[in-house]
Every structure is written in C-alpha cells, then in structure tokens.
C-alpha cells in the first residue's frame, strides 16, 4: 500500500506502483470506441501512462493539456491519459480542447487501478485513481514511476520524458 494526500490529508492506495526494471503489470483499459485493450496492444511502443482521478478537475485537465504538448515531439511513444471517467467524458474534454496527441483510456471496467496499485481506497476520492505517471519502453519494461505526493499537484513532466532518453 502506498500513500499520497488529498488537500494535505493522507490517503492510501490499494498497492504500490510497478518499479523501474519490472515488466508492466497485466492491464485492461477501455478506449474511446468502448473497446478494451491491454499489454499486447502497446507492445512495440514506448508508453507514458498519465494517471489521474478525473478529467473534470483543474489539475487533471492541465496534465492532459501538458502531456498533449509533450506527446507531439515524442517518437514511437503513445501517451495514455487514464482515469475512471467514462470514455465519453474524456473524449468530450479532448475534443473541446482540440487535444489530439494523447489517447484517452478509462479504467471504469477493468482492474487497472488495482494492477498498478493506484486505486484510492479511502477519502473523498475513494475508488478513483491517484495521480501517478508510469513510463515503459517498447518491451514493456518500466523505466520510471511517480506517485505524486498530493493529488492536487501536477506530476514531474520532465522526469517522465527524461526516462525515455
């Protein structure tokens, strides 16, 4: 179990993020077209998982905007913005913002939050995902992880990108 905070109040997750050097845990996410995808679908690509509670909060929305900017300059890399929001809400946000360099992915019907240790198991956001970043190479080896210390803070974008070099 890992700990982050929400507004200064400590909250626990169901587990721990995968560690650098490990293989990505087996996962299932739901794409905008309501089709599920997982490890096999990201094989051969570098991936950044931008994980957060809800696209309808200011910090989460900003992280999607910032990773959209970053994704435009990354080769053979897919940035997935992952929350428990339904794919429709994620798509509506990216469409209204003109964001096309990131891929939305919903954890609403898979065990992603448990597999990655990021599902919050207490507090106001109980059941949603903590703010975290996981970066992996083409073979699915984890290069970088960050569980952001406070859910209201943005992740370290530079560290995520640097892990790919």
Mean pLDDT over the full residue set = 94
Tally the helices.
5
**Number of strand elements:** 9
Shape verdict: globular
| Low-pLDDT sequence parts | none
Helix content: 10-25%
The main pleated sheet reads as: 5 strands, mixed
Distance between the termini: 30 Å
Helix/strand order, N-terminal first: EEEEHEHEHEHEEH
Across the major sheet, the strand order is: 7-6-5-8-9
Helix/strand structural class? alpha/beta
Strand percentage lies at 25-35%
Describe this structure in words.
The radius of gyration is 14 Å and the shape is globular. The protein has helices at residues 39-42, 58-71, 87-97, 112-115, 157-162, and strands spanning 3-6, 9-12, 28-30, 36-38, 46-51, 77-83, 103-106, 132-136, 142-147. The chain is 24% helix and 25% strand. It starts with a strand and ends with a helix. The chain has 5 helices and 9 strands. The model has no long low-confidence stretch (mean pLDDT 94). It has a 5-stranded mixed beta sheet. It is of the alpha/beta class and 165 residues long.
